[in-house]
């Protein structure tokens, strides 16, 4: 265990705690997103794991019950033709679009993130269509499924994977680069990568940029269209609160859609799916990214969940997210003995996502105790405590409490 | 319109109807599956589209509400670690296994059928691992997504597709065959193909047999293990009543699992997924067929739906299915003027699935009117009326009524 270089006295700590608690109350009182919390089913716990599984929006159960009882149970097959099932993938994609800075018609919902990474990376290589471009650069620090799937995409398109740290991406780019796959926010450290700058650098090298938005969509502005991103994927069960394992999405920039050549050309991506012709003809637009029959229960639960975003600007969410993580780091710094934890989260706002990751020698025990005491984050083995800050339902008093309980657990 | 070669007189038709209605009542009274109907949410309509979307099992809404409200809403992230979410793909696969004649540990649930076709066909080519075997034979009569996806699998493994009618499959097999993909029951005609015989022929040629069970699982015995099938896929929203677009499944025979090399090696198929290591190491067993995070809402709805099969033998279902389709064909023959419709469904039991397909010149109008009159089948463009017989909730009186209303609509 690191030596405690300093440790506030009991009296001093109580005074700090009062002061930070007062600050928290004032910040909550001024928070223009404070009203969003009532849209969610929450209890007295401080839920700092919305970056792993978003909380349940309170109106979703009734909507799911309608899908199950009426749409499936009563209308049955008629819901495919008369209801709003068939077009759900594109319709829900268009609902996600403004949250990630995309115009309508470019995002389609369905499948898992991993399956969409496969479509996107193979699609990027084929859009590039230059056998001299042998390399797919993959964020070596990212959530590993991206690397596993990109390796398969490389193998199946005659390319090779080159793992790179995003910090070294620009220098790794060159005439042999076909595409680069980068995670916008690192799942472990919470580091936010420079999407505009890296996308421009990738384009400068004549390659395509594929972004994984799992840890940024719903937490901060992405600006897919504004920054000329080529393809992107993301999940919907973190900051978008779509439910456990809810369907992921694929973004194909409009300029690429006519040439997008999916490796998974399932029947629902056909130009005329119900003709059921032996020959495949790809649909136009985002529909080309569909594969099989849409998973309606999960998809319509997600659609309902997205309604909590009505009237909320992602810029407001970002401002609160940074204020929350700043405040959490400040509280941790005040309450936790120096050296007991080490923050992996960048101090500068431009490089910070919406989570705080603290390295801690006895992280498994600490997270278990924290959870039992009503502060729910998660553990990334072997030694990282992750705390996700979801501005729609986490407040400043929650944040102060989380840091205070953390300090108590670390002292225990 | 074909000439009416004969047409029963009014009086004769009424007598026939009475007689067939009496027969139906007797058959229903003797039906050992009659009690299963009360397990489903049904109304007065005759629902003959369970081969497209199975009816809602009556207990599923409460189970889904529990998944949403308690497991997601209250336990939140704890359901992944403390609940039964993580192992759902294998656990539900093992629940499907006895229905298709598979021992436990060989079926994993997740993704769409199309995605699983991709895994299975690429997997078969790689298991075969012989560059001289350039051909993937694909059932040319099947639901087209199989052909579309198999074409992509061929393109990405340096093979080629050879479309064949299953009737010609045996003669098309040879030293260049890598694998054959066949639909067990044709989605349009309802023809049942000879799984044991064709699998043996494929093996005789040194190739691998991949079966699509979408239209057979839950309707008739499949015998995957007994007949030595190599790989199989199927959907769960037809005869398995899993709900609209519910997750599909992949069967990899135990003898192939250690060599099965998935083209979609997502993080949940890793031997130690939470180690989140950069290098991929495939899990053992059916887990190797997983890809991304399981779609919990849909998956647990499916799990609940499968409980209607408790205590029901698939052989009993098959016997009733044949009795129902026999009886329907008999009623159609009795009620419908000769030549007005043509059955595409094989008369011999060994070649019949659990549906009856009738070709009819004005099929779109007929199906629309039938549906409005409470007999729900579906249309396969341009001229096929499909009637699916799901033995768990369709009875003989339903069947007689469907044929009688059909005759009235055809006469209208």
UniProtKB/TrEMBL annotation, chains A, B:
GO MF annotations, alphabetized: kynureninase activity; pyridoxal phosphate binding
NCBIfam families: kynureninase
Cellular component GO terms held in the UniProt record: cytoplasm
Protein name from the UniProt record: Kynureninase
SUBUNIT field: Homodimer.
Residue numbers of N6-(pyridoxal phosphate)lysine PTMs: 238
SUPFAM superfamilies: PLP-dependent transferases (SSF53383)
Catalytic activity as recorded in UniProt: 3-hydroxy-L-kynurenine + H2O = 3-hydroxyanthranilate + L-alanine + H(+); L-kynurenine + H2O = anthranilate + L-alanine + H(+)
Cofactor section: pyridoxal 5'-phosphate
ATP-binding as UniProt keyword: no
Protein family membership: Belongs to the kynureninase family.
Pathway: Cofactor biosynthesis; NAD(+) biosynthesis; quinolinate from L-kynurenine: step 2/3; Amino-acid degradation; L-kynurenine degradation; L-alanine and anthranilate from L-kynurenine: step 1/1
Domain of life: Bacteria
Keywords of this entry: Hydrolase, Pyridine nucleotide biosynthesis, Pyridoxal phosphate
Function: Catalyzes the cleavage of L-kynurenine (L-Kyn) and L-3-hydroxykynurenine (L-3OHKyn) into anthranilic acid (AA) and 3-hydroxyanthranilic acid (3-OHAA), respectively.
The species this protein was found in: Streptomyces pristinaespiralis (strain ATCC 25486 / DSM 40338 / CBS 914.69 / JCM 4507 / KCC S-0507 / NBRC 13074 / NRRL 2958 / 5647)
GO biological process, one term: L-tryptophan catabolic process to kynurenine
Binding site for pyridoxal 5'-phosphate: 113-114, 143-146, 212, 215, 237, 267, 293
EC number(s) recorded for this UniProt protein: 3.7.1.3
């Amino acid at each position: 265990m690191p030596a405690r270089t300093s440790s506030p006295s009991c009296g001093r700590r109580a005074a700090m705690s009062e002061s930070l608690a007062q600050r928290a109350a004032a910040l909550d009182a001024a928070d223009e997103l404070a009203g969003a919390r009532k849209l969610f089913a929450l209890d007295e716990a401080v839920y700092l794991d919305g970056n792993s599984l978003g909380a349940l929006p309170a109106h979703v159960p009734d909507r799911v019950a309608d899908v199950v009882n009426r749409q499936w149970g009563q209308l049955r097959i008629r819901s495919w033709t008369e209801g709003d099932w068939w077009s759900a993938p594109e319709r829900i994609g268009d609902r996600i679009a403004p949250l990630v800075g995309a115009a309508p018609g470019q995002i389609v919902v369905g499948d898992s993130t991993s399956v969409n990474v496969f479509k996107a990376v193979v699609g990027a290589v084929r859009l590039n269509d230059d056998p001299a471009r042998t390399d797919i650069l993959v964020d070596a620090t990212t959530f590993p499924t991206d690397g596993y799937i990109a390796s398969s995409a490389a193998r199946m398109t005659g390319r090779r994977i080159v793992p790179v740290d995003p910090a070294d991406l620009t220098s790794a780019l060159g005439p042999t680069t076909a595409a680069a796959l980068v995670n916008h926010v690192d799942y472990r450290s919470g580091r936010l990568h420079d999407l505009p700058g890296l996308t421009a650098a990738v384009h400068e090298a004549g390659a395509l940029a594929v972004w994984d938005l799992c840890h940024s969509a719903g937490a901060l502005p992405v600006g897919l269209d504004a920054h000329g991103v080529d393809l992107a994927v993301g999940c919907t069960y973190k900051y978008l609160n779509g439910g456990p394992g809810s369907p992921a999405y694929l973004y194909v920039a409009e300029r690429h859609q006519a040439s997008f050549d999916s490796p998974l050309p399932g029947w629902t991506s056909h130009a005329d799916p119900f003709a059921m012709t032996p020959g495949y003809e790809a649909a136009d637009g985002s529909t080309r990214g569909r594969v099989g029959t849409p998973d309606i229960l999960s998809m319509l639960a997600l659609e309902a969940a997205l309604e909590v975003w009505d009237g909320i600007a992602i810029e407001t969410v970002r401002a609160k997210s940074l204020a929350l993580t700043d405040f959490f780091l400040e509280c941790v710094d005040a309450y936790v003995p120096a050296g007991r934890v080490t923050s992996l989260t960048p101090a500068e706002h431009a490089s910070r996502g919406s989570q705080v990751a603290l390295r801690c020698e006895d992280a498994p025990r600490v997270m278990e105790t924290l959870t039992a005491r009503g502060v729910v984050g998660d553990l990334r083995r072997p030694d990282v405590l992750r705390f996700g800050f979801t501005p729609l339902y986490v407040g400043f008093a929650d944040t102060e409490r989380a840091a205070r309980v953390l300090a108590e657990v670390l002292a225990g």
